[in-house]
Specification:
With 466 residues, the protein is of the alpha+beta class. It is built from eleven helices and 17 strands. The strands form four sheets. Strands 5, 6, 7, 8, 9, 10 and 11 form a seven-stranded antiparallel beta sheet that branches.
């Protein structure tokens, strides 16, 4: 039913009740042994007037507070029944994150959202839509965190690296070098023993948001193995190099803040260190980092040395960690025992990240709908709904929020419809670019709804305190 018809229907009901009140005898009517009364229009007017005498209810709540309370209840009810809802450990879970995001510009902070995920988020997919919402709402810019050398291309930024670098990674095939947990916040690093140059250029792709196309705040995060580590930054405005150097061994960072935003920068680094990441931002606000880990099931975080990871996170102002995993494990989780084992492992990953980055909130995003053939017919993996239910319980019991791509898509067999509309690939697993944008917009809307609830609750509390 259209809103206009609903409004007319409600108005007609109210009008009918008003007529009944007028025509109903003031002394009531008697049917058998029972008497029936209805309030008159005058009685209702007096009740309404006394209820908000001097704009207050009997318990001291103002009319504005009552209206805010109704709005909070309505929005909360809507959010809890929405396909894009959050499952939260408690209703105020994101409060500290929203406070940090709101105050970022005033406090000259860059509050980071680290979006880890499997191949579903490669090329900045899904992340980009969340970044647009956060930076339009709270300020900030730039593509965020990138590795010193490109492994997986991204639309967000163009980069080129020269020099001898050894790739150390906690994930990937057998050709990747392992490093006893010395990987840093991207779960991978690049070991330098000599010199290397990184050139970063703003993306020229038409679909890339304008917020990421300029840089003013650059940070190099590293673990200095021994000796002096030097890094010099130059921009397209000036070829004069701004040199930083560190002699202390261990995890640290170098920071450059440009007077004028640039679209091209060059970083020349020399020494003996493991280069964890480069953050490329544009002013205070919120940074949203895309960190794809192809082929991962999300169980790699405990492979990173706790001391190194804690020290690396301490170099960054992390407000939220997003873990988007599970899709790579779905084909192998064929009974409740295997699901229970996987969920226990994910609980350990969440606990580990809480220890390494205690101030950050954690959001777990489970797998999308995925199709497999059953007797020649494409349908959802049979155990996928059970896995998602178990992941929701796991996340909340380990003090993390949960967001379900599966529900946001439409649930059982929704992948077939997304594929038919060109929103998913022929593998019935991955989204197309258009589908990823649509899903990213849904995630952003979920945050927007939660932020609106936060703002309403704050206004209510302010009214109450006054």
């Amino acid at each position: 039913m259209k809103p206009r018809k609903i409004t007319l229907f409600l108005a007609s009901i109210i009008a009918a009740l008003a007529v009944i009140c007028v025509l109903f005898p003031s002394d009531g009517i008697i049917i058998g042994r029972h008497s029936f009364y209805l309030p008159t229009i005058h009685d209702l007017a007096e009740t309404n007037s006394s209820s908000f005498n001097k704009d207050e209810t009997a318990n001291g709540i103002t009319a504005e507070m009552a209206e805010l309370s109704d709005s909070i209840t309505t929005l909360q009810t809507f959010s809890d029944s929405s396909d894009i809802r959050f499952w939260l450990p408690d209703s105020l879970y994101f409060t500290e994150f929203w406070e940090a995001a709101e105050n970022a510009i005033i406090q000259r902070r860059i509050v980071r959202i680290l979006h880890y995920g499997d191949s579903q988020i490669e090329m900045d997919r899904i992340t980009s839509q969340l970044r647009i919402y956060m930076q339009e709402t709270f300020g900030g810019g730039g593509p965020g965190m990138i590795p010193y050398r490109t492994i997986i291309p991204t639309l967000a930024v163009s980069q080129n690296t020269s020099g001898e670098l050894i790739h150390l990674s906690s994930f990937g095939d057998s050709t990747v070098t392992r490093s006893r947990g010395n990987y840093g916040p991207m779960m991978q690093s690049f070991r330098i023993s000599g010199g290397a140059t990184l050139r970063i250029k703003a993306s020229t792709h038409a679909s890339v948001d304008h917020h990421v196309k300029a840089f003013s705040d650059i940070r190099l995060v590293f673990n200095n193995r021994f000796g002096t580590l030097k890094s010099a930054l130059s921009t397209n405005q000036s070829r004069e190099k701004d040199l930083c150097e560190v002699k202390n061994k261990g995890v640290g960072s170098m920071m450059w803040r440009l007077d004028t935003s640039s679209t091209t920068i060059t970083l020349n680094t020399r020494g003996n260190a493991d280069l964890y990441c480069v953050t490329v931002d544009n002013g205070p606000g919120v940074a949203v980092d895309n960190i794809p880990m192809r082929g991962c099931s999300g169980q790699q975080f405990t492979l990173v040395d706790q001391h190194f990871l804690t020290e690396a996170y301490a170099q960054l102002d992390v407000g939220l960690i997003i873990l988007q995993f599970g899709g790579n494990s779905v084909p192998y989780l064929d009974d409740e025992k295997s699901i229970s084992t996987y969920c226990r492992s994910m609980g350990k990953q969440i606990d580990y990240l809480h220890r390494c980055c205690p101030k950050a909130k954690i959001l777990f995003i489970g797998p999308s709908d995925m199709s497999t053939r059953n007797k020649g017919v494409l349908q959802t993996y049979p155990m996928l709904p059970t896995l998602i239910d178990s992941l929701i319980v796991t996340a909340n019991s380990h003090n993390a929020a949960y967001w379900s791509i599966y529900h946001a898509m439409g649930g059982w067999n929704s992948m077939l419809n997304w594929n038919k509309k060109g929103l998913a690939g022929s593998d019935y697993i991955h989204f197309s670019q258009h589908g990823a944008d649509k899903m990213g917009a849904k995630l952003a809307q979920a945050f927007a709804d939660n932020y609106q609830l936060y703002c309403l609750r704050r206004r209510f509390n302010q009214q109450r305190d006054n």
